[in-house]
């Protein structure tokens, strides 16, 4: 509102903000897996190219504050948001415009508080985490690279990176998904049993940003993971072997002697990395929901004629029955559909809703597809809420996929033609037909029994 605009104007007058905020959307190199690090380098190089030719020396970053937000990668564990990125997944609150808010909306608003702590340089943030903490704890005037560790129970750190920080915040070690025992043994646990969970925020001072831009965006040997390779190199836990080239050799040359610090903060950490976590956030009472209790909760009121104990977001629903903890998102259900407990229905339209029955804990997700000849078609994917499409051997609807394929009379070689058994996952299974909405739904109803 007006108070915010007045504050922005005041900061600009004091020289605390650039005169213009600019936004760029940078896609990865087509068909290439860059990793979070390669994508960051590629985005920064594109930004520099748009603003200043190809000059990415420290003086370029000295006069700028840049925020890079990743969209969420392949989103294999939340496949609904593979096309757009997890950063655009909805949150159970309304934004100022009245529409549902997203991780992107909330992160962008919160980042205005973080930006004031950095005189210049680059801040990189993850697309599947919502962070709420006191920015006054950030010391982003330091040289080199700075991370942010959110103090959480050691059990939370089992699924994330964990910082081990020494005096004045210097990072001594960076653990990858450590067990509670590993955290204790590494000295990561505080007397109260808390660890510094990696928030996905990394700040690069101008010199470090310039070094980052001298790395190759595309590494022939392997994708560059910003949250694995760089922290572990800076702590000395990852080193190139004698004679080894590629990414690690470049890191060793460019970041030798760079300072690495971590600020410890207290606050709320909402991770939306999987379908189960997504459903939990939208349908159940969480720390995030309590923080936003003053704002209208989204989708909890059913339209007239609809029996709903779930959540309805941006959908047209008539005569449907929606069981507890179920979600109907961006769909048109104009018949007596039956949505089971904990099911997620996303993007469904153009089908006879009166014959739509979705079992509990099942995802039904419809996508438009543009065929090479320019014609349009549809695919509907059906899978269990807890299915991990990266898992090998794969599970489908919570069962070993081999058992289900055998019941359906489908051979594994039909589903994974030419794919070795050790690489077969639900992600690369050729199961779902690209056809009309009605035929796509017929196939999914058959899959679901």
Explained architecture:
The protein is α/β, with parallel strands linked by helices. Helix content is 26%, strand content 24%. It contains 14 helices and 24 strands. It has helices spanning 2-13, 35-52, 58-62, 103-115, 154-157, 180-185, 206-212, 229-234, 246-254, 275-283, 287-291, 401-408, 412-415, 437-447; strands at 65-69, 90-94, 100-102, 121-125, 129-133, 145-153, 161-165, 171-176, 194-204, 260-265, 267-271, 307-308, 311-313, 316-317, 321-322, 327-329, 332-333, 338-339, 344-346, 357-358, 362-370, 376-384, 395-396, 399-400. The strands form seven sheets. Strands 1, 4, 6, 7, 8, 9 and 10 form a seven-stranded mixed β-sheet that branches. The chain has a five-stranded mixed β-sheet with strand order 13-16-19-21-22. A hairpin with a 5-residue loop joins strand 7 (161-165) and strand 8. The chain is globular and about 65 Å long. The mean pLDDT is 87.
Q: Could you provide a short overview of the structure?
A:
With 449 residues, this protein is α/β, with parallel strands linked by helices.
List the SSEs and their pairings.
Blueprint: H1 2-13, H2 35-52, H3 58-62, E1 65-69, E2 90-94, E3 100-102, H4 103-115, E4 121-125, E5 129-133, E6 145-153, H5 154-157, E7 161-165, E8 171-176, H6 180-185, E9 194-204, H7 206-212, H8 229-234, H9 246-254, E10 260-265, E11 267-271, H10 275-283, H11 287-291, E12 307-308, E13 311-313, E14 316-317, E15 321-322, E16 327-329, E17 332-333, E18 338-339, E19 344-346, E20 357-358, E21 362-370, E22 376-384, E23 395-396, E24 399-400, H12 401-408, H13 412-415, H14 437-447
Parallel strand pairs: 1-4, 6-10, 12-15, 13-16, 14-17, 15-18, 16-19, 18-20, 19-21
Antiparallel strand pairs: 2-3, 4-9, 5-11, 6-9, 7-8, 7-9, 21-22, 23-24
